[in-house]
Design goal:
two-stranded parallel sheet, Pectate Lyase C-like, ten-stranded parallel beta sheet, 14 strands, mainly beta, 171 residues, Pentapeptide repeat-containing protein, PA_immunity-related
């Protein structure tokens, strides 16, 4: 699908679709479903995405910077190198995604769920993580701001990473 003018999508369903468009031609997706679509390396920065679902999509390197996502679900997607930096995420659920080296830098999280994702080397720098449950996610390392990691929830197997982050030595 090629898009060349400013567009708002509402109530659309996309399956096995590859998108091509110039920067800043899309301003909003509302009530949309994306299934098995290739959205890799697209520029979705500064857009609104509301009540939408991304399922089994390829979002490799997709740029969501400074966007507003509300009531959105990402399920079983390839999100490696995706960039959500500076975005507001409200009631957003990430379930069973491959999200290695994904950027969530300086995000505003409210009711964000992270369940069974691969988050190796994901970057949550300058993002408040209080109340966020990481316990079902897989990672050996990730970037967080220590002062903003207070009250996040982790599993026992994830504890060694965070103790070293805070300079705690277990003997």
């Amino acid at each position: 699908m090629t898009i060349s003018q400013r567009t708002i999508f509402s109530g659309c369903s996309f399956k096995n679709t590859t998108f091509e468009f110039t920067d800043n031609t899309i301003s909003e997706f509302t009530d949309c479903v994306f299934e098995k679509c290739d959205l890799s390396n697209l520029n979705f920065n500064k857009i609104g995405i509301y009540r939408s679902v991304f399922k089994s999509c390829k979002l490799l390197g997709t740029d969501f910077t400074e966007s507003h996502l509300q009531d959105v679900q990402f399920t079983e997607n390839l999100l490696t190198y995706a960039n959500f930096s500076g975005s507001t995420l409200k009631a957003v659920r990430f379930l069973e995604n491959e999200a290695k080296e994904t950027f969530f830098t300086a995000c505003n999280f409210k009711n964000v769920e992270l369940l069974k994702n691969q988050l190796e080397a994901a970057n949550f720098w300058k993002t408040a993580l209080a109340g966020i449950d990481f316990s079902t996610n897989q990672f050996e390392r990730m970037e967080v701001t220590p002062q903003l990691a207070k009250n996040m929830k982790i599993s026992l197997s994830q504890a060694p990473f965070f103790t070293s982050l805070f300079g705690i030595e277990i003997i």
